[in-house]
Automatic annotation (TrEMBL), chain A:
InterPro entries attached to this UniProt entry: HotDog_dom_sf (IPR029069), PAAI_dom (IPR003736), Thioestr_dom (IPR006683)
Keywords, ordered alphabetically: Hydrolase
Organism: Marinospirillum insulare
Signal peptide: none
Hydrolase as UniProt keyword: yes
Pfam families, sorted: 4HBT (PF03061)
CDD domains for this protein: PaaI_thioesterase (cd03443)
NCBIfam families: unchar_dom_1
Coiled-coil segments: none
Protein name as catalogued: Thioesterase
Annotated Thioesterase domain residues: 63-134
PANTHER family: 1,4-DIHYDROXY-2-NAPHTHOYL-COA THIOESTERASE 1, THIOESTERASE DOMAIN-CONTAINING PROTEIN
Amino acid sequence: MNESDLQPGKLGDHLSAKEVNTWLAMIPYARLIGVEAEDKEDALIFTLQPKSENVGNPLLPALHGGVVAAYLETAAILNVMAYTQGKRIPKIIDFSIDYLRSARTEKTYARCELGRLGKRVVNVSITAWQGDREAEPIALARAHLIWPEI
Amino acid sequence: MSLIPHCKQLNMQVESVCETHLVLSIEGDERFLGNKEEGLIHGGVLSVLMDSACGSAAVIASPEPEVCPTVDLRMDHYRAAKVGKKIYCRAEVTHLARQIVFTEGLIWQDEAKPICKGTGTFMRLGAERTPKGFAEQIFGLTQETKA
């Protein structure tokens, strides 16, 4: 794979949410916090079920910032796996998250974009929102992962 | 930690607290696996630990306890944490500004082999925007730590 193969749309096909969700058995913590994949039109999106155990600030209440980070890291991992036939769980290199709004205890959605793809490293941008307010994200995250050999 | 639902679920413990830094820990539980086959802990669990440790350091550094929501968090994963071994996170405040607290943290299982370095930035909401009872909760936490 070289730089010219790095454009979106040249990644090849991704597997469906149904297949992605079978991998959750290998990722117990993703199940503990309640991450799942869903098909939305042609895209894969990732959801976080509302759970009282995911709360970090009971006074608001708001989801624990760390849980939102864990959820978006999982979304990036599953999204990469969806493009690599789920052969292996990619290793994380680094992860960075900006919190834009406090996240309520309600269903949360996330979409990933595989921005730049080197031979061994993939850059994933992740946007998270609640309700139908995709234009008003609660958090933006970015992750670098090792691209699994297929 | 027992007052924060997710920290309670993870059974997060306070190992030590002083004016400049604190150490939190979690067990290397199977519930926290991110790769069951290889026995590796999910990087996200480490984010929870880092955010909790850096956030607690930020709260403690403020003259009066005030709510400090996370502005951003950055994690550099040097190596994976393994299941079955306790995980520690030491966090400290690097700079306390009027409205912002800058923090850093380090995660390890083996002290000689750092697992993850984290940087967290927190907003100081100030006493007037801090809900009533927050100081008592923090005070409760301190009591629990001393016990």
